[in-house]
Amino acid sequence: MASSVIIVGNGESVLEKKSGSYIDSFDTVVRLGSYVTDGFEDHVGEKTDIISTIYWKLDIERLSKTKVILNVPLNMQYMQEHCEDYIDREFSQYKSNILYLNSKEDIQGFIDMYTEVLPPFRDIDNVNFSLGFKTFYFIKKLFPDKKIYATGFDFFKTGWYWNPLHNRDESNMHPYTWERLWYAKMKRMGNIHEI
Amino acid sequence: MIFDIIRAINGRVKMCLGTGSTAYYFVENASLNEADGSIEFTDAVENKKITLDKQQVKEVSLITFAGNTIPSMAAMDAIKADDHTFFSDNEEDHNISNKKFDDMVDRCMLYINSFNNEDVTRVKNLVVSNNTSNLDRLIILGSEKVISFELATAADGVYVRQLYWGLINKKLSQAIAEIDSSIQDIDDDEFIADAEVIKEDLRKNVADFEFHMKGVTFDKLFHQWPTLLNPSPFNENGL
After folding, report:
1. Residue A185's closest chain B neighbor by CA?
2. In total, how many domains does chain A have?
3. Do B194 and A184 count as a contact with CB atoms less than 8 A apart?
4. Is the ipTM of this complex over 0.90?
5. Which end of chain A is less congested by CB atoms within 10 angstroms, N or C?
6. Residue A88 above 70 pLDDT?
């Protein structure tokens, strides 16, 4: 799958098919947060080219081997400076593996990505889009010419595929239902290809 | 002594006066009666004239909101002799303190208006002690009265929970209506079918949440929210 990128989400729907080999055949495989592949290779594959993660969840072992996209949550942009210090302190030798660090300017980019396909929802200016949603934005920005594929995105209708009990019933600002609506629309428009 | 300090900073550094452990006054336009040792002022929150007699003044606690706002003994002597730089040297701290005072008055007004002017004393206490998270929660819930979660009666508990579930159901209806409005002009039957599934999952998520959250403590209640109904009106800290 040359010139194509696949974003592997962490939802349990990824276990519905044994797509591991197919996922590994993509030119670029992107995984999210604290993803797991061990024991799930048949379903999610093994290859990882890019990890998109919240910066404080970054694992130095993984960074040493893989390119990363780092996120500072938008409701914590005041921590941007801390993030940069943290990278300098903890990951200085692997800085070249950091493909992208989000910034305040991206906030409008996320909103624009949503409103390009659907009308804005209430409080869209104040939400903190989830890592999964933001990763579509980063990948579109970094690889504008690549065809985007995806799997394992149910926007927390289920838990994580390696931990189905994981739920997000704590108060937070991630607008999962709206993101899921956006994802459905993107699929219908042929902008995201779900495998 | 307290009378002397109030005289020294009056008009320059805004102050709260606490009487006992329950009542706080936000002092505005204070005038000091040198003859009988009393103080008269307007409480900025309640817009009410207050007079404290000499004995009451002796017992008040004086609260300002930044460092270098209460003059030292030496500075007091210098102020008395009108030969001092206390206010010019500490202007920045005094501005910070006065700004915090004004913010607190504004917050008190916001809470008092939200709760129909009831429980003014309790509101002021909570604002001065910077313990307003429950007030913020109650406002989000649309409560008409101040409730101390720690001291809540069974009836208070029922009232808060009714408001909480009412808020969830209101947000659910809003979200469903918004999804409907988002898709109304889209001529794509398959996408509309997807949207119907999303709406159904949202309803189910809220119903499951309500089932699992029955009987949980207040504190846990405010840290939780149905996942698919996010963004939550409460933040990650339950505020």
Report:
1. B191
2. 1
3. yes
4. no
5. C
6. yes
